[in-house]
Amino acid sequence: MIRHTTVLAKSSDARYRNIGGEGVVVRQSAGEVLVVNGVGARVLDLLETRTPVGGLLDTLAAEYAIDRATLECDVLAYLQELLDAGIIEDASGGSPD
Amino acid sequence: MPMHSDGQTAMTGARTEERIEPANSRGSPRLAPAAFGERFLRHPDLFPARQSGERWGEERVVVHFAGSDYVCDGLSTTQAAAIRERFGALCTASAPAARPSVNIRVFRAAAADFVDDDREWEFDFDLDYAPGVVRFAGFHFMGRLDGTATLRAALWTPEDSRLVSHAIFENVLRVVAAYHLLGQGGVLLHSAAVADGPGAHVFFGPSGAGKSTVSRLALAAHCAVLSDDMNALRLTADGVVAEKVPFAGDIGQTQETADGSYPVRGLFRLEKGEIPALRAMGAASAVAALLECAPFVNRNPYRYDELVAALQALGARLPVRVLTFAPDHRFRELLRMGTVQ
């Protein structure tokens, strides 16, 4: 489970580029290429700052006009998906439980 | 402010996923080798650490294509003759200093160094990456590329008379050409290139997307085809050009295909469907689609930024679109659509 204190970062196997506001993510060992939309790319950009998930949600809440509960639900689901796919990993020193 | 342009809030719904094409479209799909070289080498840990060894002979053959010379040294008389026969008019006596070139040195290796099995030959091999180094191992060969902007290649093989017939030389040349093109800001693309007057349309996509089908339709419509499998795309002062590379697909093995350099009119990601249609691709989707069709380089983490930059440059110069097509007589209509839209 991802907590607000969890710090997430791109895994060493993943390469990411923001192109025209969207994101291209490559997991090279698995041979997978993902395209994420503008919001997904923004989340990946924010992960570069090693900000804990809570801070990341605060930043997104300030940038997008959406209620906080929906934002948290969507962002956490997205992060979990990236985590499950091996694109990002827990960088906070412990397991993401 | 909505989180997505169409008002959707779920980010995962807008995610698309592609799979990088196996390095060789005619090889066996293999996405996660257990360890580099172990399928082909008895002692992968003894892979040459530098480009040295005993030459097969003193022969040199220069193979010229896509604006560059591939200078092969250290060949035996038998190997040189086989390369000249295979690559025909592409072989030249010398490499003018003004032209970009890559040196490929061929060294002897002991047959006992390689796994002995029932395989004859195949377009499938292992690749391994380190900063400034690419190693590759396949049926009866080991190879390595050193450098980035200026490449040097070496090939070790126990094969003399079978160097060409067993695709060893071609396997190495494919990898070398892919990295040389990338170093020049170009790309070796799994694609079918169809000449249309002075220009060319380039159709790309993974295996099964329809490259060979499009090529056959083009030939039936009396259009020339450069290759139905791989083409070189290079940025020149005049724009993006498509050039034939000597790596034949299904069609190129049986009939003559077009030579020369063609200004590219458009890049089309193939998609099969009943009704012909074109739709635009966003910049990120275009790069992702091209990336999955850039063999040998698209899994190299040390060249990712360079590859993406090259693909972005192509996308900035040319429209990249998804082409839905049906295998029927409407092919000419598709070419017209691709030209005017």
Question: In terms of topology, how is this protein built?
Answer:
The complex is a heterodimer of chains A (97) and B (341).
Chain A: E1 8-10, E2 14-19, E3 22-27, E4 32-36, H1 38-47, H2 53-63, H3 68-84, E5 88-90
Antiparallel strand pairs in A: 1-5, 2-3, 3-4
Chain B: E1 16-19, E2 59-65, E3 68-75, H1 77-87, E4 91-92, E5 101-108, E6 126-130, E7 133-138, E8 141-146, E9 152-157, H2 168-183, E10 187-196, E11 199-204, H3 211-220, E12 230-236, E13 239-244, E14 261-272, E15 277-280, H4 283-291, H5 304-317, E16 320-325, H6 331-340
Parallel strand pairs in B: 3-5, 5-9, 11-14, 14-16
Antiparallel strand pairs in B: 2-3, 2-4, 6-7, 7-8, 8-9, 10-11, 10-12, 12-13, 13-14, 15-16
Structure report:
The complex is a heterodimer of chains A (97) and B (341). Chain A contains three helices and five strands. The longest helix of chain A has 17 residues, at 68-84. Chain A is 39% helix and 24% strand. With 97 residues, chain A is an alpha+beta fold. In chain A, β3 and β4 form a beta hairpin. In chain A, the strands form two sheets. A three-stranded antiparallel beta sheet of chain A has the order 2-3-4, with helices on one face. The model of chain A has no long low-confidence stretch (mean pLDDT 90). Chain B has 341 residues and is α+β, with helices and mostly antiparallel strands. Chain B has six helices and 16 strands. In chain B, the strands form two sheets. Chain B has an eight-stranded mixed beta sheet, covered by helices on one side. Chain B has a five-stranded mixed beta barrel with strand order 10-11-14-13-12, surrounded by five helices. In chain B, a hairpin with a 2-residue loop joins β7 (133-138) and β8 (141-146). The longest helix of chain B is centred in the middle third of the chain and has 16 residues, at 168-183. Chain B is globular, with a radius of gyration of 21 Å. In chain B, 47% of the residues are buried. Chain A binds chain B through residues 13, 15, 17, 19-24, 26, 28-41, 43, 64-66, 70-71, 74-75, 77-78, 81, and chain B through 1-5, 9-12, 14-20, 22, 31-32, 282-285, 287-288, 291-292, 298-301, 304-305, 308, 312.
